[in-house]
Amino acid sequence: MAASSGLVGPAPSVARSGPVARFELLVHSVLLSLASVLGAVLCCLWIAGVALVPFGLGLPMTLLCAVAVRWFADRHRQWAGQRLGTPIARPYLPTPPGNRLTQLQAELRAPASWRDCAWLLANSVACWLTSGLSLVLFLAGWFYSGYPLLVAVTPPEVFREPFGFFPVHGLGQTLLVALAGSVFLAAWYFSAEPLARLNARLMRSLLTPTDKAELLARVGQLTQTRAEAVDAGASELRRIERDLHDGAQARLVSLGMNLGLAERVADDPEAVRRLLAEARASTAGALEELRDLVRGIHPPVLADRGLDGAVQALALANPVPTTVEVRIPGRLPAPVESAAYFAIAETLTNAIKHAGARQVRISVEFTREPGRVSGELRITVADDGHGGATIDDGGGLHGIARRLAAFDGTLTVDSPSGGPTEVRMSLPCALS
């Protein structure tokens, strides 16, 4: 199943230490140094494309460069986020609908695009003062450490002035050069990690969203979630109206007709008895449908016993073996409990109907922030079905994601073909 995409790719990892980690940083230094040169070239091409747009020549070039610049910046955000241990968000607003000229105008007006351009120029210099310096220290240490061997195997006129610093006469001076190489290697070893973190902080300073960009992104997200919540509410009202019209209302109409017929045939006790039995059956059916409708709006067990009891009731009613583990040190707000309950119920339905699951595991845990009553509700629904589930538009999981988004919640899915499937949901909330 396709997991929802994050902002900067994989989750950040904490930097390791030791010789292996130093050589990993050395490889990164080489790649970042070469990338800084490529970034400078890309920046020049992007500026040239923008300059040629008024002449009708730079439109394709500018759009292509804009896409390449954003991809290039995203890769550096990912690396810096992994190095610093915190993800770096993308500052870009959604691309507006329209033709390429409209999209290009939006690209040129976006402050994030120009900040990326400024970062490319700054990175072409700053990267060589950080990653490049680490690479130079390593190469110098390696060269000078092997200098006695070079002196021994080359003719006398070769390698007698190491990089023109001073002439070398005799074995003793070559050993001093080798000692200088050890100093360079030590400097590289102990400065590799600080230089890498410094480079990552420089990237973060220019590639992270500004306060204004974060505010605009937040406003856009709230606007979208509000529209989705309104649509979901309207769809729910239409469903309730349809269920009442097709179910309880039809049964009540039938009840009224039976009672009216009973009045007309009052002199036929057998007919009256039959009509009253039909009326009683219609009343019982209408009550059952109304109860089901109420459960679909807000289950009584959820109001009475909270999310813990409601999830346990779901597991008992589930036709496949279901294990439940709930760790919630209190009651949650009613809207959060309702959203979490229906998200779990919909996920269980998908696991049974579409995944062919034979066993389901539900885990619900509330993690409190230190010193605060607020925290995060984490829900995991795992099954042993055949997998292959995706968060597609119009699907059940997409509906769950929309329901959770109204509460700033998230949904991620791990469902490779052949299974198993694990649906992870999170909801920021506070104990009531």
Write out key terms for the chains shown.
432 residues; elongated; alpha+beta; 9% strand; 65% helix; single chain; 5-stranded mixed β-sheet
Instruction: Work out the helix count.
Output: 11
What percent of residues adopt helix (DSSP H or I)? Answer: 55-70%
Helical/strand content category: alpha+beta
Biggest sheet strand line-up = 1-2-3-5-4
Structure explained in plain terms:
With 432 residues, the protein is of the alpha+beta class. It is built from eleven helices and five strands. Strand 4 and strand 5 form a beta hairpin. The protein is elongated.
In short:
With 432 residues, this protein is an alpha+beta fold. The protein has helices spanning 19-52, 59-84, 100-109, 111-145, 147-153, 171-207, 211-264, 269-297, 300-317, 334-353, 396-405, and strands spanning 322-327, 360-368, 374-383, 410-414, 421-430.
Write the SSE topology.
Blueprint: H1 19-52, H2 59-84, H3 100-109, H4 111-145, H5 147-153, H6 171-207, H7 211-264, H8 269-297, H9 300-317, E1 322-327, H10 334-353, E2 360-368, E3 374-383, H11 396-405, E4 410-414, E5 421-430
Parallel strand pairs: 1-2
Antiparallel strand pairs: 2-3, 3-5, 4-5
